[in-house]
Design brief:
The complex is a heterodimer. By secondary structure, chain A is an all-alpha fold. In chain A, 74% of the residues lie in helices and 0% in strands. Chain A has a single domain (27-139), classed as 3 helical TM bundles of succinate and fumarate reductases, CATH 1.20.1300. Chain B is elongated. The chains are: A mainly alpha, B mainly alpha.
Chain lengths: 140, 127
């Protein structure tokens, strides 16, 4: 039986294309969905920072201090701040998905609320974490 | 060729992503465990920010902290492998490229997980 091979040449044009993201006016739930994937990918590579920190601590003072001075530099702190926000955003986005997976929150106002809650919640949590962290850092 | 398998038997475990609902379910499960271990990571990061290495060693010499550190490594590496695989499967449509990237993704995730587990173990043992 002849079947079309995946990836085989398709007839050019003349077929209607399904509308993709660029064609829609951005909705908050759509933007949060995209940001959820972006933050997930960012967290993926952010795991390198965690691994570097733990490995350097296990390796010895010299390596630990080297990693510490990189992470503690202005650029390092900005990256860590962004990583914190990315983690919080992805976590709250995940919780939003848990709510949807359970079958709740599908009314349009709920969807909008949950989406806005993701962005404001993530910013609030990140701010709180850094306030406590910087306070602790300063106290020492 | 005649086959005596039922349609369900042939379909089971396949599907468009060849993984049925396993991937979906495992992503949720590790998402839940991630909430717990990320809370621990935030606690650890705040406790240890700007502290010397001795403080990190002392922190992970506590059994509960070491356990949570190992679980952190396992949970996040498991979750990030699944997540990146979904991204690769969504955007990479050439079978060969996809296969290689999915494989590299698995290797990278396992590497991160094992490296973190080893580091935490060494810190816990204090060797």
């Amino acid at each position: 039986m002849a079947e079309a091979k995946a990836g085989a040449a398709r007839p050019q044009a003349s077929r209607p294309l399904s509308p993709h993201i660029f064609i829609f006016r951005p909705y908050v739930n759509m933007v949060m969905s995209i940001v959820h994937r972006i933050t997930g990918a960012a967290n993926y590579f952010g795991s390198l920072l965690l691994a570097a920190w733990l490995i350097s601590a296990a390796a010895g003072d010299e390596k630990y201090n080297a990693i510490g001075s990189i992470l503690g530099s202005p650029v390092g702190l900005i990256v860590l701040f962004g990583f914190t926000w990315s983690l919080m955003h992805h976590m709250l986005g995940g919780i939003r998905h848990f709510i949807w997976d359970s079958g709740y929150g599908f009314a349009i106002p709920s969807i909008r609320f949950l989406s806005w809650a993701t962005i404001f919640g993530s910013l609030t949590l990140t701010g709180l974490i850094w306030m406590v962290g910087l306070y602790q850092w300063g106290v020492r | 060729m005649a086959t005596y398998k039922t349609s369900l038997k042939r379909a089971r475990g396949l599907g468009s992503a060849r993984g049925g609902t396993d991937h979906f379910w495992q992503q949720r499960l590790s998402g839940i465990s991630n909430i717990i271990v990320i809370a621990f990571l935030i606690y650890a990061a705040i406790s240890l920010a700007g502290m010397p290495r001795e403080a990190v060693k002392a922190f992970f010499s506590q059994p509960l902290n070491a356990i949570l550190g190992v679980l952190l490594a396992i949970s996040i590496s498991f979750h990030m492998r699944l997540g990146m695989q979904a991204i690769i499967e969504d955007y990479i449509h050439r079978e060969g490229t996809k296969l290689v990237l999915v494989l590299l993704n698995t290797f990278f995730s396992i590497f991160i997980g094992v490296a973190c587990v080893m580091a935490v173990t060494k810190l816990y043992l204090g060797v």
